[in-house]
Design a protein that fits this description.
Layout lengths: L21 E5 L8 H11 L3 E5 L3 H10 L7 E4 L4 E5 L4 E7 L10 E9 L2 E8 L7 H17 L7 E5 L9
Parallel strand pairs: 1-2, 7-8
Antiparallel strand pairs: 2-4, 3-4, 5-6, 6-7
């Protein structure tokens, strides 16, 4: 309602015989140390796809040691920032850098494909810069422009997930 006051935006539904459960966490990695809560949520919900942002080596180690990620054989991760864990096979899983024109760890995004009910689906996991400084706002806007320009290449069925650091007045 904040983005589309008075109107319900149309959302294309991918009709599925088997629903897909997706879970997103911004772990606030260097400050948040409540790994037990995250482990419990993953075990309880058992999502098919799990994306994590602000994902540090400490978080990875603790979640691996706890066994919470045991059921996710398909994985792609950026160094100290972003990860996607999946129970369903991923194809063409890769890190992309939407902003800055350089490989800056906290500007990495993940793009991967999977099949759902015999239909190809692309997932984009993102965590663009929070617009707290003018340079960060520029990075955020550049990320959105890059995704918009790439939209046609990402397929008909696209899922965008993550901490997008947006509000109606920020982009």
């Amino acid at each position: 309602p904040y983005y589309f006051p008075g109107a319900r935006p149309g959302v294309a539904e991918l009709k599925t015989a088997h629903p897909l459960k997706l879970m997103h966490f911004n772990l606030f990695g260097k400050v948040n140390h409540h790994t037990e809560s995250v482990e419990a949520a993953i075990r309880e919900e058992q999502p098919d796809l799990l994306d994590l942002v602000e994902y540090t080596d400490d978080w990875r180690q603790k979640l691996e040691e706890s066994g919470a990620l045991r059921n996710y054989p398909y994985r792609v991760a950026g160094q100290n920032h972003i990860a996607l864990y999946s129970k369903v096979p991923l194809r063409n899983a890769r890190l992309v850098y939407a902003a800055l024109g350089a490989k800056v760890a906290n500007q990495a995004n993940i793009i991967a494909q999977f099949t759902l009910n015999q239909k190809p689906v692309t997932i984009l996991v993102a965590h663009p810069a929070s617009p707290i400084l003018p340079s960060h706002l520029t990075w955020l806007q550049e990320s959105f422009r890059t995704w918009e320009a790439a939209r046609g290449k990402l397929g008909q069925n696209l899922v965008v997930v993550g901490d997008l650091n947006t509000s109606p007045w920020s982009v």
